[in-house]
Amino acid sequence: MKKILIIEDDSFLQGLESNKLKKDGYEVVTASSGEEGMQKINEPGLEFILLDLVLPNFDGFDILKKIRETESIKNLPVIVFSNLSEDKDIKKANELGATDFMVKSNFTLDELTERIGKALTK
Asked: What is the domain extent for residue 23?
């Protein structure tokens, strides 16, 4: 079972994402703030991170930068799933090493899990 970390401060959306991924056969770990996310990115067995950008404490850009600078997890696939949709935000996430960038309002949970599945098989 693939282990996924969801870093999302919106508890309703985090619950929807978590339930969908569990239903699709993933083990799910969650974090509700940037600080909690920073603590959990080194969780043993983690194979994927779903990352919001607008978070309390540390933003998703800081977390993505930390992931890519940490030898043991620098190759983990990270999909940024955010309401930020300006070109500058997408460009910054891609420059920091995001595997994919999805604007929340443009995708369904089925499309999200499909993208996660593709990222995990690369």
From this structure: 3-121
Single out the residue of 25, 41, 32 nearest to residue 78, CA to CA. Answer: 41
Q: What span, in angstroms and rounded, lies between the C-alpha atoms of 115 and 31?
A: 20
Q: What's the maximum distance between 2 C-alpha atoms anywhere in the chain? A: 35
Q: Are 93 and 64 in contact (CB under 8 A)?
A: yes
**CATH number of the domain to which 15 belongs:** 3.40.50.2300
Could you give phi then psi for residue 35, rounded to 5 degrees? -65, -45
Quick check: pTM over 0.85? yes
Give pLDDT tens digits for 62-112: 999 999 999 999 999 999 999 999 999 999 999 999 999 999 999 999 999
Give Cα separations from 24 to 30, 70, 72, 93 (angstroms).
16, 29, 27, 27
